[in-house]
Amino acid sequence: MDLVIARNPDEGSRLPYLLWVPLGDGLVFRTAGTWPRTKALYCYPVSADEWPSTPELVERLPVRSCARRGAAIDLVVDRARENRSQLVFTTARGREAVFWQAPRTRKQARPNVRTPTARAAGLTDLQIVVDTRERYPYRFSTQQVGTVRRALPAGDYAVEVDGRPVAAVERKSIADLVSSLLDGTLRYALAELAALPRSAVVVEDRYSAVFKLEWAQPAGVADGLAELQVRWPTIPIVFCETRKLAEEWSYRYLAAASVWAADEAAAVARMGVAAEAGVTPAGYAPGPPVPPGAPELRAWARRAGYEVADRGRIPREVREAWVAEQVGAVRSERGRSG
Hints:
Layout (H helix, E strand, L loop, with lengths): L1 E6 L9 E5 L5 E5 L9 E6 L10 E13 L2 E6 L6 E9 L2 E7 L1 H7 L16 E5 L14 E5 L7 E5 L2 E9 L1 H10 L1 H9 L4 E7 L13 H14 L5 E4 L2 H29 L22 H10 L12 H22 L1
Parallel strand pairs: 9-10, 12-13, 13-14
Antiparallel strand pairs: 1-2, 1-5, 2-3, 3-4, 4-8, 5-6, 6-7, 7-8, 9-11, 11-12
């Protein structure tokens, strides 16, 4: 697939180029330039019918990656320099707008900006749901946050849309992290977190604390954490030095997720592209946990009484049954521990 740039045949337009993006059936934009080298380029989305039958091509770039991530489209073209860019769906002066930007132009957009110390994402009415099983929960007393106690299907802290979690954070001390890793419950917890559109694990200690353990093998713990991150790459495990920093990180993460959930539906509708699995236009439908590799899944299926071949595609019903068992095991474990 290629990223194609052609001249705009409409001589009366202020945007002299047409940009064809290989996402879905193809997205077409009018734009001001051929690449965002010195500044972000304004783009105007148009119907695919506006692409000329015999375009006057300016450039055709092979694409290594083209994927929608939230309210943006990430593009990586196959060349050594100027190969990364992003189409951002946003608002400007109260109007919907699309900007094509590169890493360099993004850095130049807000020079010398101080890290904000006020409310996260500009939210004044963020409400965080705290799981009822949290014994000593974060109070978020230094932030402008309202909290409510309620049983959560996954995680310890969450934000909701229409009564359903759209993002969650699982809190761990270093001792809890390691013990849950060794007894296998952390694996099930991540499987359940993966059913949410956004989720993360925050640890109230430094990563270096893993290598100071005296009651567990540091190398084994480090390998286990790395394996979990490979299996569930969408669920970051973030190490913060203290409980206070972990609370601050959780607040910022949940605020950003709340804004993302609110903007997701409009962005997907404007792109005209179906949402990926696990994220619907409502922004909160759960996606399935990621099944293990084929050999492990085949072994599980045979233990569960399914007939599977030694090679080839594993039936969908087997994958769905594995997901159901993982989620059920997590909920049962959480019920016993609560």
